[in-house]
Model the fold of this input.
Amino acid sequence: MLLWPLLLLLLLLLLPTLALLRQRWSQDAKLSWLAGLQHRVAWGALGWAATWQQRKLEQSTLHMYQSQQRALRWCLQGAQRPHCPLRGSTDISTFRNHLPLTKASETQEEESGEQLPSPTSHQDLGEAPLQADGEELAGAIAAGNPGAPLPERAAELREALEQGPRGLALRLWPKLQVVVTLDAGGQAEAVAALRALWCQGLAFFSPAYAASGGVLGLNLQPEQPHGLYLLPPGPLFIELLPVKEGTQEEAASTLLLAEAQQGKEYELVLTDRASLTRCRLGDVVQMVGAHNQCPVVRFICRLSQTLSVRGEDVGEDLFSEALGRAVGQWPGAKLLDHGCVESSILDSAVGSAPHYEVFVELRGLRNLSEENRDKLDHCLQEASPRYKSLRFWGSVGPARVHLVGQGAFRALRSALAACPSSPFPPAMPRVLRHRHLAQCLQQRVVS
Done:
């Protein structure tokens, strides 16, 4: 166990030496052999560390039950208190019996209410002032704030900005090859917009999947176009709660990672070591493969992001798919972000059937015709037979689509990120449960 800290210490000692040698390299060619030696030593140490971690992962995934027992034991170490009912026990049945499942709270939305920026905030300006913000940055670089003045770099920045935002990253950094992101629920549209605009022409790679409880999955297949993640057996203690098809109901008992079945969907359950609570995260994954005895999964949806005004249960994945098809029928439109509100939240169902209020931020379209707005409701009916039936009988009204100005969702995202209890990365809600958040978008409607 002491080997890994010693290795990190060695690398920390080597890195300053490498930086110093690099500065002096051009001044004294005689030191080139020493710099090369230090470089090879550093890379050799990193390669050895990677090999060691790979072997540890292989061993832990080969013996999943024992690995999860160790993870459970580590979690319970924080609960070794005199009156703890689990003291000295690592039996999984006892653990489950004494600790009932709890649901993740929505305090992030609750606590962000007073931190929302006003509708007149500069964030409303959106992407339009990219040339005014870029000019400010270029001026700072030219003046040397911070650091030494770099007038040539400032001129390069101005030239790149004059050509617009599309492909900006490659113009600024021609040798850039990959953009590293962290996969999490609610971020897909932001990543797609980034890929299509500023980072056009670059490969994207997500090394890990993060839920509200922390990093839960590792990407061992970077060549795959869609994120597939290995759920490692430790140090976090993860359980799987089977999700019944077509409903949000779940089975009575959780499963260990080695008990997952191919093609089945599960809600992730994470045990918090600090407070010793078994928390249902609301993230649903599907097992698509295995690495030794360890499941490989893909993210499906978040249960908390389900729309239901008459018990129809339109999930986040189904709604996003329907919205994507609808936007595809709007000429020239590119979806940047979206959010949904059940009509009762905004009291907009007075005198009409309950329905969905949908807020979209687009690029390439400044106004929505009634024909375009109706296309979303048609796509929802095609995607959900239950929703179609309720629409036919008039129990649910047509979805109402609103176009918001640029920067509306950035304001919402900033408010959520500023919340003290906000996880990293901040989970972007697609279904807003609180009026003050819904009003943040409603006040920025332009069409």
